[in-house]
C-alpha cells in the first residue's frame, strides 16, 4: 500500500499542470493567429511544415492518452490521485 500524496507532491503536480495549461493556451492562441494569417492572406503551408505541426500535435494527443491510462491505473489507489485545487 502506498502512502497518500504528500503536500510537496501535490504542489509539484499543481505547478506543472499550471505551467502546461499556460503553454497549451499560448499554443492555441498561436494556432488561431496562424490560421487567421493564412486565411486572411490566402496562404498555405507546405507539406514539411504541416508534418512538423502534426507531429507536435500527436505528441500532445499521446500524452493525453497516457494521462488517462495512468489515472485509470490509479483508481484503486485514490489517495495517490491529486485533485484539482
Could you describe the largest sheet, including whether it forms a barrel? Answer: none
How confident overall, as mean pLDDT?
A: 92
Broad structural category: mainly alpha
Radius of gyration: 18 Å
Note the beta-strand portion.
under 5%
Number of helices: 2
Overall form: elongated
Tell me the number of structural domains. 1
Keywords:
about 80 residues; about 70% helix; about 0% strand; mainly alpha; 2 helices
Structural features, described:
- The protein has helices at residues 7-40, 47-73.
- It is mostly helical and 85 residues long.
- It has one domain (7-80).
- The longest helix is centred in the N-terminal third of the chain and has 34 residues, at 7-40.
Helix and strand topology:
Elements (H helix, E strand, L loop, with lengths): L6 H34 L6 H27 L12
Summarize the structure.
With 85 residues, the chain is mainly α. The chain has helices at 7-40, 47-73. 72% of the residues lie in helices and 0% in strands.
